[in-house]
Request: fold
Amino acid sequence: MDAAVDVRAVARWFGGRPRLFGAPAPTARAVDGVSFRAPRGSVFAIVGESGSGKSTLARLLVGLLPPSAGEVRVDGQALADLDAAGLRRLRRRIQLVLQDPRASLDPRMTVRQTLTEALVVHGLRPDREAREARVAEAVGLVGLSAAHLARYPHELSGGQRQRAAIARAIICEPDILVLDEPVSALDVSVQAQIINLLMDLKERLALTFVIITHDLALVEHMADAVGVMYLGRFVEQGPVAEVCGAPRHPYTQSLMAASGHGPAGTREPAPVLEGSIPSPLAIPSGCPFHTRCPAARLVAAREPALAVATPDGRLPRRCVEDIPAPRPAPGGSSVASCHFADEPAAHRSPPSP
Reply:
């Protein structure tokens, strides 16, 4: 199946510029070598904690940021090969829906003005009557009425504002929507309405979704495939049924435990994550997850001869020194970047003395 979005080893680094005096400024590796493909009509989810690089990746997908390395291809066209006019034409086909509609909608414009502006910017429906008809069609598709067209964002509820933001995204008839935390700013009851709306629009308009989220329940409900992101990299990737049903990376297992799921085939839940994600200005050596990894601590406790002292306690030497290569699942299509991905015993507590 053809890929609507094809991301190839894309990276985005910030900083690193020379200073007038002293060493260059440190480099923040916000996205560092991410690859994935989203076939037409599919839903690809990117999940991880705040600070993992998800939103930066979203902006790379729509061309708001240029990559420092690698490339993003939309329908086979590399974004880096496009000039300003070509990039504007492409943006009509790949639209971004942001997390907070209060920040993404202009408070000085009514819903009608916001939707009309999108048509004008992209040179669509030059006739006024045709524009009005398209605006009315778009608000109808997202469940708003004609009465909402004259309202300003502050006169709408949170769910109505997000519906208006989605209407602005689909009014230009895109092929792909990049949804950056589309429901996290909404009440739980409204979240379900927006999720159902998005899935309905996907089927009616034949859309491809790339969803940025930290909500694994949303991933299991909406997505076909998922990439689990940590410090700018995918630590696990594959079909949702495999990654969420039987997670192999300790980070994915901890995220699942935080959402009330334990790893498949065990009675005890995975340890819940402790500590905070390190700064992208100082990514740990070896496996970037080793400073917080519960599996690494269990292995070090069971095999102390293979451990070394670190500021985070005694940890396996290979975790501290060696970057793990992606390991395909036996007989499956998922991959996990963990030294213990194929060692289930590494994730169980050591026997009591």
Summary: The two ends are 54 Å apart (CA to CA).
